[in-house]
Amino acid sequence: SKGTYEFYMLKEICEQPGVLRHLEQFYLDQNGEPQIKAKIIDMLAAADRLYIFAAGTSYHAGLVGKVLFEKFAGVPTEVGFASEAGYHFPMMSKHPLFIFLSQSGETADSRVVLQEAIKRNIPSLTLTNVPNSTLAREATASLSLEAGPEIAVASTKAYTAQIALEAILAKALGEKIGNENARAFDLKTAFALAAEGAEQVISSKEKIEQLAQKFLLPSRNAFYIGRGIDYPLALEAALKLKEVSYIQTEGFAAAELKHGTISLIEKGTPVIALINDPLTADLMRGNIQEVIARGASVITIASKKLAVDDDDIVLPEINYYLTPLVSVVVAQLFAYYASKDKGLDVDKPRNLAKSVTVE
Length: 359
Ligand code: F6R
Prior knowledge:
By secondary structure, the chain is an alpha/beta fold. It has helices spanning about 10-15, 15-25, 40-45, 55-70, 80-85, 110-120, 135-140, 155-175, 180-185, 185-205, 205-215, 230-245, 280-295, 325-340; strands at about 50-55, 75-80, 95-100, 125-130, 140-145, 220-225, 250-255, 270-275, 295-305, 315. A five-stranded parallel sheet has the order 2-1-3-4-5, with helices on both faces. β3, α6 (about 110-120) and β4 form a beta-alpha-beta unit. The chain binds fructose -6-phosphate (F6R). It catalyses: D-fructose 6-phosphate + L-glutamine = D-glucosamine 6-phosphate + L-glutamate. Keywords: Aminotransferase, Glutamine amidotransferase, Repeat, Transferase. One of its GO terms (molecular function) is glutamine-fructose-6-phosphate transaminase (isomerizing) activity. This is Glutamine--fructose-6-phosphate aminotransferase [isomerizing].
């Protein structure tokens, strides 16, 4: 039940710190070492390349997964829309492993790719929130996202669980194949800080609602921009906002805007800028100036170390690679309040169903 929450979406956003703590307990031991079945780690370790297939929000979690697997396991990773791969199968390495990310485990587009993988004897691993779902049963192996039932159509806690589980798998795989970054990746601390960070964001939800009312509600369109790991986050943030508020929103790699799309910036166009990447933080500030010069109303979200005085939302410091776990909560709350304060049915946006079982 929704309990005291007006909508499931807000309930599920607020459950995320708990989901992170549960995943830490469920998949890590006392020393923070991943506890994943040897059979699964051996299967991952035998692959020369990982291919992640998913749709929508789960695809966006896959884009973050690519960064995690390449950084902490050193294994080249590709991410594709299941709907495209099903009929235009990508060129494969010698020893591919397919990872399916799916909250529901029933997405038809992903099932088509899995069937093709089975035909070609390609091993597969499904990460899903529904352990007895089709994608879980038909893949070589599966792992549970442990996020608890997700009722709102817009996916929130399944996304954070997918990223958390990808981080655990990246560390487990990296350690198995002797990657130095994997050993040094202190997941236990990082998860604790991410859970606290998500909690802090949730406790600042009134401020996020005010920003949504001032900048998003009056607008028909909006942009999220980011670089590095903030780019896939910008894609997810944009999907969430447009999906539930009907404000047309695009997520952009910040520097790409000036290669064409900046022509859409007008006086008052909301641009939400994500600044978590230390390598590109200064460049982000430059990209922000570019849109301000064209009249954009900019909202900045920055991690503490990279923040400047007038940033709108300052996020507590956590491992760069897990910053999506905290920043996404801000984006989810922007989407939630933009929808709710427009009087929309937050949990059931028009034209959508929770699980997409047609191709
Ligand atoms: C967006 C959303 C969808 C799903 C997509 C995949 O909020 O919920 O984009 O992420 O339909 O669904 P699953 O993860 O069930 O395969």
